[in-house]
Amino acid sequence: MGLIGILLALGGLIWLAYRGWSILLLAPAAAAVAAAFAREPLLAHWTLTFMDAAAGFVAQFFPLFLLGSLFGKLMDDSGSVTAIADAMMRRLGPQRAMLAVVLAGALVTYGGVSLFVAFFVLVPMASALFRAADIPPRLMPAAIVLGTSTFTMSALPGTPAIQNAIPMPFFGTTPFAAPGLGILAGVIMLLFGLWWLGRAQRHAATARDVDTPSEAQLHESPVAAARDPLIRERATTASGFDPAETEHGGRSASRPGTMTAMLPLVVMVAINMAMSLWLLPNWNADFLDDPVWGDVTLNDVGGVWSVLTALLGAIVCVVTLNWRRFPSLRDTVDAGANAAVLPILSVASLVGFGSVVAAMPAFAAVRDWLLTIDGGPLVSLAIATNVLAALTGSASGGLTIALQALGEAYMQIAAQTGLDPALMHRVAVIGAGTLDSLPHNGAVVTLLAVCGATHRESYRDIVIVGIVGPILALVAVIALGGWFGSF
User: Fold this and answer.
1) Predicted confidence band at 211 (pLDDT cuts at 50, 70, 90)?
2) Cα distance between residue 50 and residue 350, in whole Å
């Protein structure tokens, strides 16, 4: 009965979340269903098991959500994201429109700009470029997914994406875990995705599939998507930015120069690298031995501190360079801070649900099965993160649930077998960024709405570049990591 309860709870959570019900209510309700079938105490699991896990997630990662959302909003309202995307698209032009959209998305998201901020800036510009190049707009969502939601989210070392931060406290790693394997995985995702998109573009040209949306659609879709409460509920479990805040704040009437716009992204990457590779490894953190800090080590918090410091430096940089461009800096800061609240609570609720499921006696059989899958711990870790990200429709939620339930067991395996935690970090992150892009994923739903497209028109290409490509990269990382170890 316990396993039936877990399956019913998951099924109800997925179905109702896709229909737009708030995850803040769905997650504890689903957890109660799982506990009821297992004949476990309902109130105790809600107020203790569920809330302890949810509060722990907020305590660990709210600073990253907060500063990440704030940085994205500052970059957006200063005109910096638009300036970077416009410069990339003008340089490559209509003849390389597909590559321009992919690289523009990759540049801003690897530099720390929130996923949905990138969506709302890239879509109008990509629409104009696709129209000039006679590329059907149905391919635009896949191009944006490839640039914003694949290799810059899960593969490239140092990415400030929350998914890359989540394994760090569990494995004691840094944002630059397994850099060689991460770069290799990123190259596979990028080249495979570009190959498919080029193939789809050629096929569309042969079939004369060049239908373009009207000007009204191009301008209305992002605005309508930001205001749609159904999209908002789905979106906030998939990223760290609340779409409802895109219209708040005050946007600059002018854009900075390209180099000025890019400098905060450079600062972000540089500080993150310096903190992770040089400063923190030589940092005297003996003060953490004091019981007042909760018995943590620098390995437990160092990765998060690296990303936080990088975000702070980038925020100071973008404000300093664009001080006069903000019509109302206070309104922009308020909107950026507010944009972090619903996403962190939504994902934390998923994490609370996962902690209750993991506490059920029936879950022990699931855990034992996962840990004994043929192929070794890397394969079982990849399967666990894939499945949970698919079920929740959230890479960050699925990844956290998997590591809370299994992270300690994998660290024990690593200690016994000599497996590098950095390799497990990279496998876990890439694994969470594959099947999370199923049709109910909030980022997919939001992007299609912003593009004025439908699942029927555009989802097949999203599957190829957002799921098939990352799975190929994941297989390569597991194979090479198993043969040569982490590098």
Assistant:
1) low
2) 9
